[in-house]
Amino acid sequence: MENLAQLVNADERLVWKGRFIDTSFMVEVGETAYLIKVTEGRIASVTRGPFVMPSWSFALRASREEWEQFWLPVPPPGSNDLFALIKRRALKVEGNLHPFMANLFYFKGVMAALRTGGNK
Amino acid sequence: MKSYFEPIVGRYLHLELLGKPHRLYVEEAGQGIPLLCLHTAGSDTRQYRALLNDPEILKRFRVIAFDLPWHGKSSPPAGWQNADYRLTSRDYTDIIMGVVDAMALDSPVAMGCSIGGRIVLQLALEHPERFRAIIGLQSGAHVDPYYDVTWLHRPDVHGEVSAAVVSGLVGPLSPEAERWETLWHYMQGGPGIFKGDLYFYKQDGDIRGRVAEIDTSRCPLYLLTGEYDYSCTPEDTMDLVSRIKGADATIMKGLGHFPMSEDPETFLRYLRPVLDNILASGAAGQKAN
């Protein structure tokens, strides 16, 4: 997760897809929370919790094991997409979902950016 | 590159469906046993472009695909602007049988994917005598809703969201060009049409209670399902097999929810033996014409 800004910001097409987004969202990898600030499609900062009063539009929460499967170069069936995790109730998406759904290709791309090789 | 035309011929069929005049776009190629192909929710006949171009299949089958009303190049019925589009089992069945009748198709094979894979089960139940065989791609009797479909049609979310929602249903190893062509079709869907199709897929078309009545001795049933499909999962298809005596199922390695479109080459390797089987059954006279 520490490499997220570098990976996303180096992907010009992904940044372009997110050019209208200015928001912060929360990602929980098991017990560890990350607050991710997006400015015009670029990841401005990734801050690791714990937090006292975090402010965010939406949160993506899954266990570490689930994210690790998701981030495999070729994930197994059921782990290859955020919606595959949602279908199995392994990922919770909460909060104001408008920025997430209105820019779904972008946020799927951001979370898949941590995948080493394989399908982004 | 050298320019060339594909063998596909596209025409507009005028017919009455659901009590209203309709203009449907129909593509076909090849000659032989009619093979009627039904596209997925929110997409159109372009999903079958590889099948409609396969020289071996076209020697033995007349491959036909039509865009459902509101989809692809088919028109919505006049007055569409005054109502929400919502597909029901009854209407979907009537549309397919209307096309079969209008084109005077004699004992066709029906093959459908996703919503098409569901409705062919309904055809096997209600009209087994009209079809030589049924092929269900990504067939399940029911799907548990797992996202709020209202996101698919609202003025503050671009319709591109339909493609973004289904993007993960393409298998992770599918070729890039085919993956993005498949998603492009979703990006081109009319506003609210994918959502309207999902009414059938997620609510009205639940036939869990009836699938056991399918009689495969009257109409053989073949099921092909991609292992990466988390909408209609391999488990959903195997559940059908456990309920329908004589149903034949294969789980397709590496493929997702759009096998014929996302990775045609791999898909055709699974489809060819099924088509061979159907031809062999016909030759043995197992299905009276």
Characterization of this structure:
The complex is a heterodimer of chains A (120) and B (289). Chain A has helices spanning 4-9, 12-17, 64-70, 82-87, 98-102, 104-112, and strands spanning 22-29, 32-39, 42-48, 58-62, 91-95. In chain A, strand 2 and strand 3 form a beta hairpin. Chain A is α+β, with helices and mostly antiparallel strands. Chain A has one domain (3-113): SCP2 sterol-binding domain (Nonspecific Lipid-transfer Protein, Chain A, 2-Layer Sandwich), CATH 3.30.1050. In chain A, strands 3-2-1-4-5 form a five-stranded mixed sheet. Chain A has six helices and five strands, in the order H-H-E-E-E-E-H-H-E-H-H. By secondary structure, chain B is of the alpha/beta class. Chain B has a single domain (9-287), classed as Alpha/Beta hydrolase fold, catalytic domain (Rossmann fold), CATH 3.40.50.1820. Chain B is globular. Chain A binds chain B through residues 74-75, 77-78, 80-84, 86-88, 97-98, 101-102, 104-105, 108, 118-119, and chain B through 144, 146-148, 151, 156-158, 160-161, 163-165, 167-169, 172-173, 227-231, 234. Chain B: Keywords: Hydrolase. Chain B: It holds the Pfam family Abhydrolase_1. Chain B: Residues 34-139 form the AB hydrolase-1 domain. Chain B: This is Alpha/beta hydrolase.
How many H/I helical runs of chain B? Answer: 9
Strand order of the largest sheet of chain A: 3-2-1-4-5
CATH superfamily of chain A: SCP2 sterol-binding domain
What amount of the residues of chain B lies in strands? 15-25%
**What is the CATH level 1 assignment of chain A?**
Alpha Beta
Please report the distance between the alpha carbons of the first and last residues of chain B. Answer: 45 Å
CATH topology of chain B: Rossmann fold
Strand order of the biggest β-sheet of chain B: 1-2-4-3-5-6-7-8
Class inferred from helices and paired strands of chain A:
alpha+beta
Number of strands of chain A: 5
The tally of strands of chain B reads: 8
Helix content of chain A: 25-40%
Secondary-structure-derived class of chain B: alpha/beta
Q: Assembly type of the shown chains?
A: heterodimer
Using the 3D structure, state the CATH architecture of chain A: 2-Layer Sandwich
Q: What's the CATH H-level homologous superfamily of chain B?
A: Alpha/Beta hydrolase fold, catalytic domain
Quick one: biggest sheet of chain A? 5 strands, mixed
